Amino acid sequence: MIKQTVKSALQISANIFPKSCAKAHYYIKFKKKLNLTNPTNLNEKIQWLKFNELNNNIYTQCADKYKVREYIAAKGCGEILNDLYGVYDNPEDIDYNALPEKFALKCNHGAGYNIICDDKSSLDIERTNKLLNKWLKQDFSTLFIEPQYKKIERKILCEKYIENERGGFPDDYKFYCFNGKPYAVMVCVGREKGTPKFYYFDMNWHPLPFEDTVELINRNDYPEMPEGFHKMKHYAKKLASDFKFVRADFYLLNSEVIFGELTFTPSAGLDVSLQEADIVLGSQLRL
Q1: Inter-residue contact 95 to 158 (CB < 8 Å)
Q2: Which 3-state string (H, E, C) describes the chain?
């Protein structure tokens, strides 16, 4: 009860004093004051964007995991959208009998609202619906001051289950795009083994000396450019054209590009793992 009361109080504060809450989150995370007057690194500039850009309707549409599909199609990129089995207002509308044995459920109004089902026969439907209902009631925008999620009409999506030829999670590629141009890509490989590795590359597939990538480079332990890299770069540029900053995420399956999401506030602008990348990537963003 006390925990819920505190959480409710924080959400109320986020609605009334969003800038103060953002400054508090930043100080707690980095032990230094947030500079919104002259932001320099990427985390600071993301905080600036929260109060100067992200209330725009285009950000609401593109943060919405359902309506972003309209944006992708309008940009001439509809072929990279994952198959959609259904869209629901509440869990009770889902006909699980009609779904395939594998699928992914997600809520459209935030991050982390995902249920990956790789075996429908073992799915606890009652528990799943209870969790979905819980998520639908949450105002994700107030957790870490991410206004692009505020006005999203909440839905549940059911999409095709994505897996590689080994039956595991596909590699994913996250393109950091600044002022309409992709600058760097973060690659996550080995996720199905439970030991994911993260690499940063520039747009010529030269490894960037960011954090863990340095050690991997020294061991000559990094992947070759995938066959579909240039296609992903092409899509990233098309999808980034309307934004000062966006991270365009894709999956690659046998050189086939599948859209993941458009992210405007990675880690809510509180990513402690960036370090050197925080400075270098931040220098690319012109506000």
Answers
A1: no
A2: CHHHHHHHHHHHHHHHCHHHHHHHHHHHHHCCCCCCCCCCCHHHHHHHHHHHCCCCHHHHHHHCCCCHHHHHHHCCCHHHCCCEEEEECCHHHCCHHHCCCCEEEEECCCCCCEEEECCHHHCCHHHHHHHHHHHHCCCHHHCCCCHHHCCCCCCEEEEECCCCCCCCCCCEEEEEEECCEEEEEEEEECHHHCCCEEEEEECCCCECCCCHHHHHHHCCCCCCCCCCHHHHHHHHHHHHCCCCEEEEEEEEECCEEEEEEEECCHHHHCCCCCCHHHHHHHHHCCC
0.90 exceeded by the pTM?
Answer: yes
Residue with token string 């992903």? 232
**Tens digits of per-residue pLDDT, 227-236?**
999 999 999 9
- Dump pLDDT digits (tens) for 212-225: 666 666 666 678 89
> Would you state the structure tokens that stand for residue 194, as one six-digit string?
């439970």
CB 224 within 8 A of CB 207: no
d(CA 232, CA 177): 12
- How far is residue 238's CA from residue 217's CA, in Å, rounded to a whole number? 30
Q: Which residues pair with 250 in a beta bridge?
A: 173, 259
CA distance 139 to 109: 8
